[in-house]
Amino acid sequence: DIQMIQSPSSLSASVGDSVTITCQASQDIRQFLNWFQQKPGNAPQLLTYGASNLGPGVSSRFSGSGSGTDFTLTISRLQPEDTATYFCLQYDNLPYTFGQGTKLEIK
Amino acid sequence: QVQLVQSGGEVKKPGASVKLSCKASGYTFSKNAVHWLRQAPGHGLEWLGWINPRTGNTTYSQKFKGRVTITRDTSATTAYMELSSLTSEDTAVYYCARGAGDGVPLWASWGQGSLVTVSS
Q1: Which of A34, A43, A46 sits opposite B112 (nearest CB)?
Q2: Of B63, B95, B105, the CB nearest to A34
Q3: DSSP category for residue B42
Q4: How does pLDDT run across B23-42, given as a tens digit for each residue?
Q5: Beta-strand pair A4-7/A19-25
Q6: CA atoms within 13 A on the CB side of A41
Q7: Contacts of residue B62 in chain A, CB cutoff 8 Å?
Q8: Which of B39, B65, B106 is the best residue to mutate to test the A interface, defined by the most A CB atoms within 10 Å of its own CB?
Q9: Residue from B47, B94, B102 to probe the interface with A (highest A Cβ count within 10 Å)
Q10: C-alpha distances in angstroms, A38 versus A42, A84, B29?
Q11: Would the pLDDT of B7 be above 90?
Q12: Comparing C-alpha atoms, which of B77, B2, B81 is closest to residue B36?
């Protein structure tokens, strides 16, 4: 199975800041990577797909980039509602596998 | 609007099976894959498999092969996931999610989740 190493596991930032979360795949996954946001008690929400395409209805403050083994999710102009856990997902190979998540706290 | 409504939570004993449902509405059921995932308490997400509602073809994670069965009832626009030989490790919230027609996990729509608790 492809391992997805996500970092950091948690971070804290202030309203208006920008943050970057990374995912590294254990092998080349081309651009088959999605990012999700999950708030406590809720199902995940798709943020980006195919590494860099914005999901439907998602704020342009979220952006994804990368290919091969290294990927990033950048959240700009942080808002209080961005408090959540963020996951990456690779879908180049079965089984689809996830990063362990990054918990973002807005100070 | 697209909606996926899952069945309620279940409490099962070790060794039992559980069957969850995922009722789809707001789109043509046969045109999109339905995936099943789970999230154990305090853990990340895990993908179980998916079904093509038009053909009934399924693809499963090797980890769950032999224990998981995904089916569908097109007249009821409902997908089902049955997991057998349950252990405490299967305690989790189970989600269904709508994928693209070819199975690509463009999971923009999710069910609300069904908590399965396995306990003696």
Answers
A1: A43
A2: B105
A3: T
A4: 999 999 999 999 999 999 87
A5: antiparallel
A6: 0
A7: 94-95
A8: B106
A9: B47
A10: 6, 6, 25
A11: yes
A12: B81
